[in-house]
Amino acid sequence: MKNIYQKTLLAAVGFEGIALHSGRKSNIKIYPGKENSGIIFKRIDLKKNNLVEAIYSNVSSAKLCTTIENDHGVKVSTIEHLLAALYLADIDNAIIEVDTDEVPIMDGSAKVFLDVLKKSRIIELKAKRKFLKIDKKIELVDGQRTISIEPNDETLEVEFQLNYKNQIIGNQKNIINFDRDNFNDVYESRTFCLYNDIEKIKQAGLAKGGSLDNAIVVGEIKVLNENGLRNSKEFVNHKILDLVGDFLLSGYRILGKVKCYQGGHELTNKFLRKMLDTKLDTKKTKVTSSRIPENLNIAKSLKLAVNA
Asked: Does pTM top 0.85 for this prediction?
């Protein structure tokens, strides 16, 4: 039976690591959240205006990661793997303290976050969970990239397909039903990039903390990480992980069948904005976006085959 009540942690848990893009040390602590509060980041390195709500309309950039920003210009970036872990751990409400502007990358997946959260006690709150039920197909086409969602009353199902010229990544496709399937391979799958793109990424001022410890680096004929891949579909599984994390920014548990081709953070955020401004079969008040950035992703202009 589907959990209909909101959940949060009983006690706080903490993590420390390196921020992927800034290269700085980053510490976070996840505290229990009140019902209907959602996920809120708190920049404890700042004295005021330091709360940033994790909601799709606060996404201000998708430069190789998802960045949210409040009305005072305070940002938190690389939030997608942590959000995916919260989704998979069944947590709806939390306050996340962070001592810099970026969540630590850990091992490049959601594994470290989720392993700790699964060992933590999670409690049920009195308020009912907010589900979003799709009653008709919604689709967004952006050049060769597409994403759509169709009705599915029971669960979230994601079908994702990649099409890379690199022979190692190639054409990968996977379908995950998050109620029915084992999603271990998804949350353990790491961010990746092509070796030939590393210098361009560095020149863009990004991935200063990147290493073989927190990302898969792909050469022309092999994966450069000593132990190779964690699973045979790690590239596409990581894209599914990113999508689930970005979908939590909707403020709902979305029920539907998602199909995505060549997507990423930018496409997912554009899709959430379109979907949540469309009349849906839901008893909740329609959510509207307050600001819609036109250019969310520097990776497009740099033509990088990279994914955070």
From this structure: yes
